[in-house]
Write a structure and sequence with these properties.
15% strand; 14 helices; 17 strands
């Protein structure tokens, strides 16, 4: 079979690969073998695909090829290899959650989100690395070690969906799963030059969430283009009565509805009025905003009033960790890392009055965002506050001259949006002055996921092309596991 000249199948966009598979011009077997070859060529340098399922993937690819040749009805993701974040349970494939407590855990069944991807025709290639239980935005743990940035393996890929972002950027898979509380889809997307979409809570239902009535944590797609994210989301979105936020009527996400930039009203903000954003990121954002402004109907510099975001998120996030991991810390304190222990300890310090104040503030913040979005269609900001730094740094203690208030304060651009439950997508916007990827965040109204993605697809067209890592350099790089401090929590 044939594919565009000079392109390895694993480097094809998901939409194009799926089109070629349906047209019998690309075999799912060829695509899979290309992805496996890329994993074997570069993963030693970055450590993104930490549990591999090559044998079963090969069997699935052969079955997918036979279905194509028979003329069977094909699912939207038919034959596309996918990386699954190691916080999601996969039948017969090691799922550790980045924790020594689960280092030998092999689930007996897929969780619902993984099952939906398989039902749509996706082929699970393996599990992508994540920090322990998704805590922190630096992808390293005591089971698999650190994941390096594909543009510089000594630097962080962010997190917690860091392994997925790196696998996408290096061509190991065309689509990958992720989840997001304080930016875990958007932060690594920005650091690695790919797309990460945080949906409105419930659009991608999750049946295992312990705090089902909290809007903070969601699952969503990661890809190399907005169109690819829309394609993946079309298979992830569903109704599930076990998730109280799940919609009864599922929207259509692929193909993305066209949006004319010339009719778009946009607000630009470098910091939401409160986030500590370093000068390198502010400069990169200003350049990206200047590229977008001439194409839209109206452009203003402004932000919703985000007063109280830090305090409310700190409380509600810690309460979530207490609910999810308090028992693990109590029973196994020596086998749980510092991020999880500290979050649980913080949760125990808060009173019912603290939680009540945080929830009242969260509601007030949401309503201020609603009012602001009545006058603009989307808000565009940097996706993250800093340029990538060493993965040995547990968290940034300072951003330029500003001391951070907590280990997650540097994620403020993302959690400002998470707290109020709005859809947001990170779109690659080229390289910053340090030569590292930089992404902008496009935010819209609750439930307007399809519109936000369509607007992001239009914005994507006026931004610089997606940056690509130097694969030859990665092939020749020494193993990341040989770097000091590779294996551990911190």
């Amino acid at each position: 079979m044939e594919w565009p000249l000079g392109t390895d199948p694993c480097d094809l966009d998901a939409v194009e690969a799926r089109r070629l598979i349906g047209a019998k011009r690309l075999s799912p077997v060829e695509l899979l073998e290309s992805c496996i070859a890329r994993v074997e060529a570069v993963d030693h340098a970055v450590n993104a695909m930490v549990a591999r399922d090559f044998d079963r993937a090969r069997a699935a690819a052969r079955a997918a090829e036979q279905a194509v040749m028979r003329g069977d009805r094909l699912g939207p993701l038919h034959g596309l290899p996918v990386g699954i974040k190691d916080l999601e349970e996969t039948v017969g494939l090691r799922t550790t959650f980045g924790s020594p407590l689960f280092q030998d855990h092999v689930p007996a069944a897929d969780e619902a989100g993984v099952a939906r991807l398989r039902a749509a025709g996706a082929i699970v290639l393996g599990k992508t690395n994540t920090p322990e239980f998704g805590a922190g935005a630096n992808t390293r743990n005591a089971v698999y070690g650190a994941t390096g940035n594909p543009f510089d393996p000594a630097k962080s890929c962010a997190g917690s969906s860091g392994g997925s972002a790196v696998a996408l950027a290096t061509g190991m898979v065309p689509i990958a799963s992720g989840s997001d509380t304080g930016g875990s889809l958007r932060n690594p997307a920005s650091f690695c030059g790919v797309v990460g979409f945080r949906p409105t809570p419930g659009v991608v239902p999750h049946e295992r969430g312990l705090r089902g009535f909290s809007p903070l944590s969601v699952h969503g797609p990661m890809a190399r283009t907005v169109a690819d994210a829309c394609l993946m989301l079309s298979a992830m979105a569903s109704d599930d009565p076990r998730d109280p936020f799940a919609p009864r009527q599922v929207d259509t996400f692929f193909p993305a509805r066209p949006v004319d930039l010339a009719g778009l009203r946009v607000a630009f903000t470098p910091d939401f009025g409160f986030a500590p954003v370093e000068r390198t990121v502010r400069a990169a954002f200003a350049a990206a905003a200047d590229r977008i402004r001439p194409h839209v109907a109206a452009a203003i510099d402004g932000t919703p009033d985000c007063t109280g975001t830090d305090e409310s998120f700190a409380v509600l996030r810690a309460v979530g960790f207490l609910a999810g991991h308090g028992e693990k810390v109590r029973l196994h304190p020596d086998r749980v890392g510092p991020n999880v222990r500290d979050n649980v300890a913080e949760g125990l310090r808060y009173s019912a009055a603290d939680v009540a104040r945080a929830e009242v503030a969260q509601t007030a913040l949401y309503r201020r965002w609603v009012r602001f979005l009545q006058d603009v269609d989307v808000v565009i900001s940097p996706a993250i506050t800093i340029s990538p730094r060493s993965w040995r740094e547990l968290y940034p203690a300072r951003i330029d001259e500003i001391a951070t208030a907590s280990y997650f304060h540097w994620l403020a651009m993302a959690y400002a949006v998470s707290l109020v439950g709005l859809p947001a997508v990170c779109v690659p916007a080229g390289l910053d002055a340090a030569g590292m990827p930089f992404g902008v965040q496009v935010v819209g109204a609750r439930g307007a996921d399809a519109f936000v993605l369509a607007a992001a697809a239009a914005i994507e067209q006026v931004l610089p092309p997606r940056p690509a890592p130097d694969l030859a350099r990665l092939r020749a790089a020494p193993p990341i596991r040989d770097m000091p401090g590779f294996l551990g929590f911190a």
